[in-house]
Predict the structure.
Amino acid sequence: MTIRLHQLRCIGCGIVTSGEGMSAAFRCLQCKELFEVIYPSWFLDGGGDHSQRPNAPALRALWAERKLSTEMLDQSGVWRFRELLPFLDEPKQAVTLREGNTPLYELPRCARQVGLDRLYAKHQGMNPTGSFKDTGMTAALSVAREKNFPWVACASTGNTSAAMAAYAARAGMRALVLIPEGKVAWGKLAQSVDYGALTCQLKTDFDGCVRVLAEIVEREPVYLLNSVNPYRLEGQKTPAIEIAEQMEWQVPDHIIVPGGNLANGAALGKGFREMYALGLTSRLPRISVIQAQGANPLYTSMMQFNGERMEPVQADTRASAIRIGNPASWRKTVHTLQETHGFCEQVSEQEIAMAKAEIGAEGIGCEPASAVTFAGLKKLCVQGKVRRDESVVLILTGNTLKDSEYTIDFHRGTLLKDAEMAALSAKEKDTVHRLARPPVLLESTPEAVLRQMETTVRG
Ligand code: F0G
């Protein structure tokens, strides 16, 4: 018999279960809150059997050794850390696309711009389907398969659906995708259909899709793979382990994440908390969350109610991945902000567009939702909340190819409307123009091209 190391705990009333007392939409039947996966034996005050507590130096050595392995699970940047993911009955049956193993890039020009010595990007857009969702999807979809569900489903702004569709296809499971009509970037919609999911565009927004799906999963044996699913967060905690490993087990001072449905910041927080508890690292980083101004329920909650309650907003932003007005995991993220003394900021459409072009100019690129991290960092630096000598890691959640329409519109000068440009200072307008690098149409002669090169050099 397998030893059950993990339990599920409601973050509202604290009830602990191995699955009962929970709705199909992962809500507590008592208090309606969400659950998190816990491993009591890892925590010295957790009351569990401490012989099950992983050993930090041994783990580091084992994980390093696995980098050379040709085994499928070892090649995954999620399952390489499987000692910290002990919830599958048969780990070898995990559904994997070799996710994770994403690079930690330096951003020297962006660092100079904000006056920091060390600024990094953890590029989760370098995952198999181009977003951070793959790390959580390999975990939760593997659970769905183990539980023999015929269908998996999600409501999505596009990235979760792309990831779910791909992993379901690998597992030979049926996938149901609900997305808001007209508000999902083409690259993401294309992935969902290409990977064979039943893709339904509903005449509503993301929050409306969530409501419809919540009813469906109550009626039919359909496994919900939105980030309310606690196993998603288990996978999504592994980039925290990768960051620590990539920095020689020195935790950075500050991690900055975009905030949409508000699960990812909490997942990374959980990863850092568990590493700290197990003695893999010696402290927690500050974790800050940045929202788009047009989709800012967490920011508003922190400002008005100190994170004690959240009022949904009517969301609107071109960063369509985070166009969410009623985020499910807001309470988990508030805990993370409080525990790590993180900040919550909001950024405008213009700030997002400029930050995205600046990250692009580093030769890295990301999708608009990811760029809120750098836009937010700029604000935190101006406010004096980040010191020059602090090491900061931006979590870039999606690949630049996900939303190329946005990128082209920005560089052609058609993204920002007249009123948005008019709201900028002269210096900011200048920055927008300077950052724009539209493609140029030329006669097909060497002279025309050479002249253009010269013009470019002269600026
Ligand atoms: N960045 C990107 C690129 C995203 O796709 C998302 C969420 C987020 C940030 C926000 O993460 O929800 O954990 O706060 N996308 C979800 C989706 C909602 O359906 O793809 P979060």
